[in-house]
Structure formats: structure tokens, C-alpha cells
Amino acid sequence: MDLTSVYRAEYGRCVATLARLLGDINLAEEAVQDAFTTALQKWETLPPNPGAWIVTTARNRAVDRLRRETTREARHAEALLLQQPDEPQEVGPVHDDQLRLIFTCCHPALAPDARTALTLRLLGGLEVPEIARAYLVQEATIAQRIVRAKRKIRDAGIPYRVPREHELPDRLPPVLTVLYLMFNEGYAATAGPLIRTDLCAEAIRLARELAALMPDEPEVLGLLALLLLTEARRSARLDAAGDLVLLADQDRTLWSRPLIAEGHELVRRCLRRNRPGPYQIQAAISAVHTDGEATDWPQVLALYDQLLAMVPTPVVALNRAVAVAEVHGPAPALAALEQVDLPGFHRLPATRAELLTRLGRSAEARAAYDEALALVTNETERAYLRGRQAGLG
Fold this sequence. Notes:
It holds the Pfam family Sigma70_r4_2. By secondary structure, this protein is mainly α.
């Protein structure tokens, strides 16, 4: 493990821990960033517990900064910090700290898009380009949202705490969105290795914590089921050479049966509650994919019809078109894609290219692959698209 890996694995945990100690998210983030800069200068080998080293160093930097301040609030914050133990608890699965950070950033006083963007930055350690890809918007837009959200938290004095029980439902939707997008970035990273196991594991861990906190919320169970059923297929996503393997071609014997069993049980629990929601429907789709030796595509299409009626987004429409192709053929699916507008998202032209290939329209398929290659940012996905394009002859 190198410093970059430590940053990705520990950044969110360290910020959450420092935010609890300081009660100030901005100061916590700055102190953690300073600590990583110090680590870059001082570490010749990794310490036994890199996360604890970062927290200790960040805490000391924060104390130094507060001592330079002259306000009463700064002196009070310094006194609280000095009352903490010299050695913070080991940075590992710090459940309460991270949930507290999520709920603070998802305060209803913040704009919805700003909530999730800020939380992905602080909790997941995602960079602005990665968050922009999740939202399919410009990087400058995401940067502005994060700045405005931090300013709002500071100016409105939003407390750093898990909200009271009656406040939880209002904050739940953005919390679920954060965990969903966090897992998605881990499962199909913007750049670097295709799969970031640290992000996937953290999103699943936090989803489990949320399910323990809110066990009667079917959408929480639905999200957890979706993440588990998707994670169950991870070992089959790449072949021995590191090349991408699509779902239809995956070796199902490599799938995790314990995760599939757990995910299916959660889906059944959701069905018994009879309060369907988007995450539950997506989990049901994943359950169909992982049930038996082949996917029941008509059932998948019926579920996508239900999902599209509930959340009529372009991404859902794109995924539904894939199911249409499996049930009714590529021509109707291509017609469905004509109604989808997803600028900047490589999977739209990539899907169009695949459908055109199946229709024997090679020249158009080649042009669609060119469009997808111009947009894709992950090298593993790029290599897959190049291979498909080369296969056109």
C-alpha cells in the first residue's frame, strides 16, 4: 500500500473523526489535508496504523491553528481538543463518526445536489472530476456546489450530529444517494483500476450501519440488497488478463453465493412490506440477474418499466433499452435510445454501437464507438470498447 492508497482508504474516516473532535467540517478537512501533505514529506515507510497517524497529526495541526486565532470560539475549540486523549482511537470502522458526517452534510437546509456532492467529497474522498461524472455535469458546477454547501453549514451553524429520530426521514433520500453513488464509483471508477474495492466495501459497511439504525425503512434494505447483489458479481467482472467481462459472459461460479443469498432475503423482506421504491426495484432487478443460470429478461424489462414510471431519468431509460434489446430485439431498443439524452456519458453511444452492430450497420456502429471512446475515462472500459470496435472488421 502506498500513500495514494492510504489517502483513498482513510481520507473519509479521518475527516469524520476530526469533525467529531473539532465540531467544524472545514477545519477538519483542512487539517487532514495538511496531515497528508506532512506524510508525503516524512513517510519513508508506512507507519503501523496510517489512519491513526493522520488523525493525530491533523489534530495537532488544528490545535496549532486554533492557538493562532484570537476569538473566544477558537479558544473554546482548542480547550475541547486538548481534553481529548493524546492518541485518538485507532482509525478503522468508525461507524458513528461517518454516519454523523453523512447526516450533517445531508441537512435539509442544503440544496439537494449540494448535499450529496459535499458528502461524496468528504466521506468518500472523491475528487471533483469523479463527483462530476456521477452527476453527469461540469466539474466547475460540482466545485461551486461544494463551496456553497460548506459556507451554508458554517453560516447556518448546522450541528455535527446524528439527527433525532423524527428528523431521520427527511434526510434519508440524500443519504441513500450518497451511498449509492459512492458504491458506483467504486464499482466502475472514473479513472485508474476499474474497481475500487475500498469504496465498495465502505459503501456496503455504511449501508449495513444505516440498516441497523433504520431497520423498518424498506428503501434502506433495498439499497443494501442492491449493493450486496452487485458486489456478489465483482469477482467475475474482469478476466485473468484484467479485461472487462459483461454480465452475459461472466462465469457465474465465481459469484459470491453468500452475498446473493443475503441480498435475495433482503429483497423478500422488502416485498413483504409492500412499499416499493427505486432502490428496491433495482435490487429486484439484480435479484433476477442472480437467480438461476440465466437472466429472465422479460421480468427484468417489466421491472424497468415500473422503475421508469417511478423515476423517469435518462439513465433508467438507457438501462431499460438494454432489456428491450434482449426481449424484443435491437431495432426497438435503438428506437428507444433515440429518446434518451445523456450528453457526456459514454455508455449511451457504447450501447448504441452495440445495437447497431447487432443490426449489421457496421459503419454507424464504428462512428458510435468513436463517440464513446472520446468520452470514456477509464482505461479498462476504453480497452473493451476498442476491442469491440476492432471486431467490426
